[in-house]
Specification:
Strand content of chain A: 5-15%
Number of strands of chain B: 13
Number of domains of chain A: 2
Strand order of the largest sheet of chain B: 6-7-8-3-9-10
Order of helices and strands of chain A: HHHEHEEEEEHHEHHHHHHH
Strand content of chain B: 25-35%
Structural class of chain A: alpha/beta
Largest sheet of chain A: 5 strands, mixed
Number of domains of chain B: 2
Distance between the termini of chain A: 22 Å
Radius of gyration of chain B: 23 Å
CATH architecture of the largest domain in chain B: 3-Layer(aba) Sandwich
Oligomer: heterodimer
Largest sheet of chain B: 6 strands, mixed
Helix content of chain A: 55-70%
Distance between the termini of chain B: 40 Å
Structural class of chain B: alpha/beta
CATH class of the largest domain in chain B: Alpha Beta
């Protein structure tokens, strides 16, 4: 690898962008958008709650596995399957004994007080986002409906079918109606049981606001811009300009010069990810300067840039013309978005884990909203794995197909 | 200097070059000629390392074109038939970039610009260049590192008479300095004027190899075109006794409106050798 050749090739890439200016104009627009995002209403971080549907994940934390928990687990509706996560309190991420809930999540926590081995009181803690007690409404509606069904079927099992009569209409809108309905249920059970002892646990509801934000909408926009900057440089600019050089024959002219294919490739590998990372870091830095001192942010940026570079080089190797490269980059983006959307709306597991676009935005959003959890490190490992796979695939294809 | 031995290049089952044997000497300006699809460009593609021979060997200064590619690469300059510049850069910037890759001093770009008479347009973007200017810029790029071998694919196509003269002068000067040049062209006047030797290929095979003059003499056909008073056109082959007598009687009878000896040029030689003769 000769430094003077590498320098000339990198300088050539830079000079081409200076001469064309289209890429620079878009980069400046992104920077302007980041400046506007940081200047206007910087404190209204949670303003987007309504727009993005509030809490995107709800934990059901329980102190012990009970028939109630079993019933709840077995009766999660299809549309909430991806959003509801059951876990024992001991398994939750905790800091100084306090459970940590990531940004954009809430929880329904169950603590059961036992008397003679049977639950005497069930404490239900609703951990909702601060300033938005209704954010968990869809999860609560499910929880209260299924809790009552669980208790009703347990009672019927003991007392015999039909003794309790049908369940009255139940509105889980307020704590008062929930408790009233529970008291009514307890009275009906006791009336049906007669002299037979059938204790129904007491119900206590506590609502608590979580510190932090619902879903940092501004951080989500900043994440979008950071991801777009990396995509733009590595998956769009790299293949289209590479294919343009190939189509015009200038790539051949360079290949016939003393520059080796490895040097030509290295210059592109250096320039485009660095351009993308530089732009992405600038956008992130404008939004939240502190993120630039975060190791997690830089690792995430490098992983996503590396993965996009692999994707970009794969497109560049497969496409023969500039138009094909452009269409390839667009088709890739649309296909992946479609697959992720289908998987998310239909609760299809595992497949999304194979997409860099699944892990990338999550880790970058966590870094930008200062909400890195242990699960984000797993996403980072996933992103690094996928980036490595893409880079290998690009190198393999390049070896097989070459420049032409 | 350049030796092709039994070169065969296949595209699927089609042999674009079919057993080509050729030896080009050092300091020679060699014209590789042939009709479209004869295998000239494929041969050049093998010489510039863009196509592997299916069979046979190609050596340049003793180096095998496949095995010793790294040794050969810096020794040649190439002018493709299709221009390939960075359109957004100026002519000078294009040359400076390639000059950096070749490790030549910055001043060299100005020298070659002057050589091809492009110094006035040097600081204009290439997208504003005419076809001829682009062609001259290609030659300037090929000359940047003063290579001992030049491969030129139709170097004077789209050039005006003066620019073509400039290119001819440059090529002759390079040959005088000991450079070996292989060029393809469809301009037979150019071939006669500047080529030391030519090889004519047809359907992938070498059909003739000699100097343009020798080929012309060898393949000359002595013919006379005549037009009778009634407008009928006749051709007489002077190598045939009966036709000579017929021509003589035509002239004596006064029935000939016009009689013209056919000036035999290299153009006709080429057509004859490639099986494309016309009367």
């Amino acid at each position: 690898m000769r430094l003077y050749i590498l320098k000339a090739l990198v300088h050539k890439e830079f000079a081409r962008h200076l001469a064309n200016r289209g890429g620079i104009a878009l980069a400046l627009l992104l920077v302007a958008a980041a400046v506007l995002l940081s200047v206007f209403a910087p404190e209204e971080a949670a303003a987007g709650t309504g727009m993005v549907g509030g809490v995107h994940h709800c934990f059901v934390d329980f102190d012990r596995a009970s028939p109630l928990v079993k019933h709840l687990r077995e009766n999660v509706p299809r549309e909430l399957k991806e959003q509801i996560q059951f876990r024992e309190i001991g398994n939750a991420d905790a800091l100084n004994g306090l459970i940590e809930y990531p940004v954009g999540t809430g929880a329904i926590k169950l603590r059961q007080v036992l008397e003679a081995g049977k639950p005497a009181t069930i404490h239900v803690y609703i951990w909702h986002p601060k300033d938005d007690p209704t954010a968990l409404a869809p999860y609560e509606a499910w929880f209260w409906r299924e809790s009552r069904r669980a208790m009703h079927s347990a009672a019927e099992k003991k007392l015999g079918p039909g003794k309790l009569g049908p369940e009255p209409t139940f509105d889980p809108g307020t704590d008062w109606t929930i408790l009233e309905a529970h008291d009514d249920f307890t009275r009906r059970v006791q009336a049906a049981a007669g002299t037979e002892a059938f204790p129904i646990p007491k119900l206590e509801i506590n609502r608590k606001g979580l510190g932090g934000k619902v879903l940092d909408f501004r951080a989500a926009i900043a994440t979008g811009m950071v991801v777009f900057a990396l995509y733009f440089a590595c998956v769009y600019l790299l293949p289209t300009l590479n294919c343009e050089e190939r189509e015009r024959g200038v790539l051949l002219a360079q290949a016939l010069s003393p520059a080796s294919p490895l040097e030509i490739l290295a210059a592109k590998f250096l320039f485009y990810p660095l351009l993308g990372m530089g732009l992405a870091a600038a956008l992130a830095g404008i939004y939240r300067p502190a993120v630039l001192s975060s190791l997690f942010f830089w690792l995430s940026l490098a992983a996503v840039a590396g993965g996009f570079l692999g994707i970009g080089m794969t497109v560049a190797t497969l496409a023969k013309t500039q138009r094909a490269a452009f269409l390839g980059a667009m088709c890739y983006l649309l296909s992946v978005s479609m697959v992720l959307l289908i998987c998310s709306t239909n609760g299809i597991p595992f497949i999304p884990y194979l997409a860099l676009e699944y892990h990338g935005p999550r880790i970058l959003h966590a870094a930008l909203s200062d909400g890195v959890q242990s699960s984000h490190w797993l996403h980072l490992i996933g992103a690094i794995g996928l980036a490595t796979a893409w880079l290998f695939s690009a190198a393999w294809l390049f070896r097989r197909r070459g420049w032409q | 200097m350049i030796r092709l031995a039994g070169l065969r290049v296949l595209y699927g089952s089609f042999a674009a070059v079919d057993g080509l044997d050729l030896q080009i000497h050092s300091g020679e300006l060699f014209g590789l000629l042939g009709p479209n699809g004869a295998g000239k460009s494929t041969t050049i593609r093998v010489l510039i390392g863009q196509r592997r021979p299916s069979a046979g060997t190609v050596t340049i200064a003793g180096y095998d074109v496949v095995r010793d590619w790294a040794e050969i690469k810096p020794r040649f300059g190439y002018v493709p038939d299709r221009e390939n510049h960075f359109e957004e850069f100026t002519g000078r910037k294009n040359l400076e970039f390639f000059g950096q890759l070749y490790g030549v001093p910055r001043r060299r770009a100005q020298d070659v610009l002057e050589l091809v008479e492009l110094e006035e347009a040097a600081d204009l973007p290439v997208r504003g260049y005419s076809l001829g200017m682009r062609k001259k810029l290609l030659l300037a790029r090929a000359l940047l590192h003063e290579p001992p071998i030049l491969y030129l694919d139709e170097p004077t196509a789209n050039l005006d008479i003066h620019s073509a003269e400039v290119v001819h002068r440059i090529l002759r000067e390079r040959v005088k300095c000991g450079a070996t040049i292989i060029m393809t062209t469809h301009d037979m006047d150019e071939v006669e004027k500047i080529c030391d030797r030519v090889g004519i290929v047809c359907r992938g095979k070498l059909v003739a190899l000699d100097s343009p003059l020798a080929l012309k003499q060898e393949h000359t056909e002595r013919k006379v075109d005549a037009i009778r008073m009634d407008g009928e056109r006749l051709v007489f082959d002077l190598d045939r006794e009966p036709e000579r007598r017929q021509l003589a009687s035509l002239i004596e009878s006064g029935a000939a409106a016009s009689v013209r000896t056919r000036e035999f040029d290299f153009h006709a030689t080429f057509l004859k050798l490639t099986g494309q003769t016309f009367d």
